[in-house]
Amino acid sequence: MVDRSEVIKGYEYESGQYVLVDGEEIKKITPRSGKTMEILTFLDQADVDPIYFDSSFMALPDEHADKPYALLLKALQDTKKMGVAKVSMHQREYTILIRARKNGLTLHTMFYENEISSVEGYGKTYDAKLKPEEVKLADQLVRSLSAPFKPEIYKDEFQERLN
């Protein structure tokens, strides 16, 4: 076991090559978002594909910050917008999406466009000839199997079998 006092921090600039960084140097290079969250813009919720959501965090207001928290929450609810902000966590800066959810603010770290895989042929228009009765039947199937989303009914069955 390594004692915490023996842990050093560094940055790998080439494979196997590191620059050691001490606490004071980390403070100097910490971006502004290390102390405050800077909202860059607001987007229509409908315009953001959930594929860009990475990790989710539930945000609570700091002490004496109930009013700004409530104002941002109400504005996002009323306008159906989400915020885009920069924030630092664990000595790294992230772009996050801020959205109103269940009367609170939920933060999602964001995948960048270059992190979203592309698959050749995905999204192409298929030249399939669909008969109206086939479309009607498929629509009926979807409607008959539709239900409200209740996350509590979905279980990790693999995990349950391990227990």
Describe the structure.
This protein is an alpha+beta fold and 163 residues long. It has a domain of 83 residues: Ku70, Chain: A, Domain 2 (Beta Barrel), CATH 2.40.290. 25% of the residues lie in helices and 31% in strands. The protein has four helices and seven strands, in the order ββαββαβββαα. A five-stranded antiparallel beta sheet has the order 3-5-6-7-4. A hairpin with a 2-residue loop joins β1 and β2. The longest helix is centred in the middle third of the chain and has 14 residues. The protein starts with 8 loop residues before the first strand and ends with a helix.
Sum up the structure in keywords.
alpha+beta, Ku70, Chain: A, Domain 2, five-stranded antiparallel β-sheet, 31% strand
Which CATH class of the domain at 33-115 applies here?
Mainly Beta
Strand content: 25-35%
Biggest sheet architecture: 5 strands, antiparallel
CATH architecture of the domain at 33-115: Beta Barrel
Helices, by number, come to: 4
Order of helices and strands: EEHEEHEEEHH
Helix content class: 10-25%
Number of strands: 7
What is the average per-residue confidence, as pLDDT, rounded to a whole number? 88
Radius of gyration: 23 Å
